[in-house]
Amino acid sequence: MDKLKLRAGGSGEPPFLLLHGLGATGAVWDRLGELLRRRLLVPDLPGHGGSAPLPEYSFEALAAEVAEGLDEAGPVVVAGHSLGGVVALELANGRYGLDVAGVLALGVKVEWSVEELAKAAAMAARPPRVFETRADAEVAYLKVAGLTGLAPADPAGVTEADGWRLSLDQAAFGVGAPDLPRLLAGARCPVVLAAGADDPMSRPEQLRALAADAVTLPGLGHNAHVEDPAALLTLLERLSPSED
Question: Which Gene Ontology molecular-function terms are recorded (predicted)?
């Protein structure tokens, strides 16, 4: 397993760094990547897909591992979904040796109840479930990633180990709740917050309370980047016109 599995390709500067959400892999960006005329850097976050797990999960540790795994200093434009959106905001503070020119944070969960945090901690402590077949494990992968009916399962999302299980490190569920006001205040680049109008985890009114110019994507849910990749193009172009 790679310390950080990174897909890289395309041409056009500055590149886009695309960060997936909890439980998914970089493959969720494939359709958007086909639309972007830009060099792409698409990792599996630590503890996901083909990337090695971390000893302990925090937004800071995830950001540090991503920055180290890129092997370049930027500038880059970062688009992140859900957990990846928080990591993108963390990278934007300039403390990781990466020049971030802009951030699109999509579908970031703003409000966390005590019950939700307790449930996440319990999931983090739970041993991985083992399935008899790869197909059963892929069904579970799609459910955990919120991709059921939206995308095929990434082969890297499951692994064989005395049966089949998710590649996801269960401990990643324990990353906790982000301090979004602090992250936004610390960003040293333009930031766009966005969410699907039908996203139950990232309500548009919650985002607007953080940033008056937060964008609502009509008719889309939590995985807006998978449901309608083209809907993100204008937002990304706003952050970084191509230098080609």
Answer: catalytic activity
Contacts of 134 (CB under 8 A, 6+ apart): 158, 160, 164
Mean pLDDT of the region 53-68: 96
Q: Are 229 and 32 in contact (CB under 8 A)?
A: yes
Domains and CATH numbers, the chain: 6-110+175-239 (3.40.50.1820)
- What are the angstrom distances between the C-alpha of 166 and each of 127, 150, 197? 11, 18, 30
> Are 144 and 170 a contacting pair, CB within 8 Å?
no
Bridge partners, residue 215, by sequence: 194
Which residue is associated with the tokens 């880059």? 76
**pLDDT surpasses 90 at 11:** no
Helix (H) or strand (E) holding 40: strand 40-43
The answer to whether residues 59 and 21 touch, using CB atoms and an 8 Å cutoff, is no
Whole-angstrom distance, CA of residue 76 vs CA of residue 195: 22
Q: Residue 232 — very low, low, confident or very high, per pLDDT cuts 50/70/90?
A: very high
By DSSP bridging, strand 76-81 and strand 100-106 are parallel
* pLDDT at 159 exceeding the cut of 70: yes
**pLDDT tens figures, 162-218:** 899 999 999 999 999 999 999 999 999 999 999 999 999 999 889 999 999 999 999
- Nearest-angstrom CA–CA distance, 70 and 63: 11
Task: Give the span between the Cα atoms of 83 and 62, in whole angstroms.
Answer: 10
Please, what sign has the CA dihedral across residues 67, 72, 75, 80? negative
Place of tokens 């040796």: 97
Pairing label, strands 16-19, 100-106: unpaired
- Interval 142-146 mean pLDDT: 94
